[in-house]
Amino acid sequence: MNRAQVVPLTSNVARVYPSEALVALQGQQRKAMADQLATVSKTRLREKMGELSPADLERVEQAIRVQLSLG
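The structure corresponding to this sequence follows.
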C-alpha cells in the first residue's frame, strides 16, 4: 500500500480539545490534531521528524479514538 494515515502536528498548544493531544517532539511541546487525520501518499513523506514516547503515542491514539467515536 502506498498510502499512510497522518496526524498533523502544530506548535500552537494554547488550547487543547478532546480530539487533540499534547506530545513532545525533539524536546519541544507540540499538539497532535486527530481532528485533521488525513490519508497521504507515502511519496509525500520526506524525512522522519522524530519518535513519540509510548506515553505520547497513547495520548495520540486516545485522541484518534475520540475523533472517530470509537470510545
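The chain has a mean pLDDT of 96.
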